[in-house]
Each structure stands twice: as structure tokens, then as C-alpha cells.
Amino acid sequence: MDRSLFFILVSSLLAVSEVQATLAIADMGPKIKELVETLRSVCIPRSGTNEEAIQKVINGEFTDEPKIKAYMRCLLEESGAVDENFASNIDVAAALIPPKLLNDVLENIKICEPKKAGFESFEDKAFVFIKCAYEQNPDIFIFF
Fold it and tell me: Which of 8, 79, 98, 113 has CA atoms 20 to 30 A from the CA of 36?
């Protein structure tokens, strides 16, 4: 699976816990719920971010701040959404994304993956990719 795709998937799933669009984590199924709980329990302490910063991203406010960028990187890496080179893993995304959103999410990945190319740090790549996913279609953006 392409890592960028998985990244968009994870990004989409991340916002779902408190998304104010049309999605809800409850609609995602047990695999996603378990993934969200696991990722948050690992990535919040590892990154040092807090709920307020996560909520800002959920609401579409992207602040270039090291802790939230580290959280985004952690989510993508721990979920398997990206490989060791930070390329998107499409297979993972396809396995987790609800079928009704899959085509739109895949399109977002296609658009957003190239935007990571200009950045060296994985934190910056994660930030740019997730922000792009939101900008492409905030109605299907999921962040947790």
C-alpha cells in the first residue's frame, strides 16, 4: 500500500473523533476505534502535544508547532500509513477507509503526496501532507 495514501487515511481518521463535518468515529467500525485509541495512547506522550493542539487541527487550524508536527509524524508511522522513507502506504488506507470515502481519500493522497517532496524532516512532511488533505476536502478530513 502506498504510504501517502495511508497517511491521508490516518489523517482522515485522526479528525474523526471530534470532527465537526459529517463523519464520526462511531461510523468507522471497531478496527478504526481500536486504532485511534492505540495511536493516541502512544503518540500524545511521545510528542508532548495536548488535546488543545489536536483540537485545533481537527478544526482546520494548522499551527507550525513542533509538538503537533511530532504527533502527526507519530500517527503516520505508528499506523503504518508511511514506510521508512515516509512514502504513503495505500494498502493500509484501503483496508481502513470506509468504502464511501475511499475514492475521495485516494484522490487526496494523489494530490498531497508530491507536496512532501520539498521537505527533509518527517515532521514537516507529515504536517504538509495532513494540511493538504484538509485543504483538499475538509468534509472528509479525519484527525484524532
Answer: 113
61-109 pLDDT per residue, tens: 999 999 999 999 999 999 999 998 999 998 887 887 888 888 999 999 9
Q: How far is CA 98 from CA 24, 67, 101, 108, 134, in A?
A: 11, 29, 6, 15, 17
Instruction: Mark residue 64 as left, alpha or beta (left: phi above 0; alpha: psi -120 to 50; beta: remaining).
Output: beta
Matching residue, cell 483496508: 95
Looking at domain 3-140, what is its CATH homologous superfamily? Pheromone/general odorant binding protein domain (1.10.238.20)
| Residue tagged 527533509 (cell numbers) | 120
Question: Which residues touch 118 (CB under 8 Å, ≥6 apart)?
Answer: 128
Cβ-contact 104, 137 below 8 angstroms: yes
Q: Are 128 and 119 in contact (CB under 8 A)?
A: yes
Indicate the residue type of 62.
F
CA distances to 58, 61, 123, 129 from 86, in Å: 22, 23, 10, 11
Per-domain residue ranges of the chain = 3-140
In the block, which residue shows the cell 515516509? 86
